[in-house]
Amino acid sequence: MTTFMDRPVPDELWELFQRVVPPSPTRPQGGGRRRADDRLILAAIIFVATTSCTWRQLAPVFGASWQTVHRRFAEWSAARVWAKLCRILLDDLGSRGELNWSRSRQPSLGAARAGRPADPLTPWPAA
Questions:
Q1: Which residues have a Cβ under 8 Å from the Cβ of 21 and sit 6 or more positions away?
Q2: Residue 89 and residue 83: Cα distance in Å, rounded?
Q3: How big, in percent rounded to 5, are the helix, strand and coil portions of the chain?
């Protein structure tokens, strides 16, 4: 049985992620602790995003404290890594024809009951 930690971040996702993540800062003075592995940090962020786990509940199996994971999440968010990754994924899926942007034109029963236009692109009638 394969567990989450056996393959925390698929190779394909990791390759895409490396294209958008900013380079790791280097410490000019040297010394200190070794930087936590970006791939394990990404796995921890994905774990938090896809479960009901909070930052503080992260298990040590990810190789970093919850504070480190959260700090890296904040750094990557400020660098717009998630938006860039999303754009790459959408472009890749679109270029392979696996993404369909067409909208369904079937009316919504809930919208009809509420007196709203069934098609979300149709403007509300003037009052």
A1: 38, 76, 79, 81
A2: 10
A3: 50, 0, 50
| Confidence bin at 119 (pLDDT 50/70/90) | low
Residue 24 lies in a domain: no
Instruction: Give the Cα separation of 36 and 63 in Å (integer).
Output: 7
> How many domains, in total, are found in the chain?
1
For residue 66, is it within any domain?
A: yes
Cα separation, 25 vs 118, whole angstroms: 52
Query: What is the model's pTM?
Result: 0.69
Hunting for tokens 């490396």 — which residue is that? 18
Q: Is pLDDT above 50 for 2? A: no
Q: Is residue 1 part of a domain?
A: no
Domain range for 43? 7-19+36-97
Rounded distance, CA 91 to CA 107, Å? Answer: 29
pLDDT value for 6: 54
Read off the pLDDT band of 127 (50, 70, 90): very low
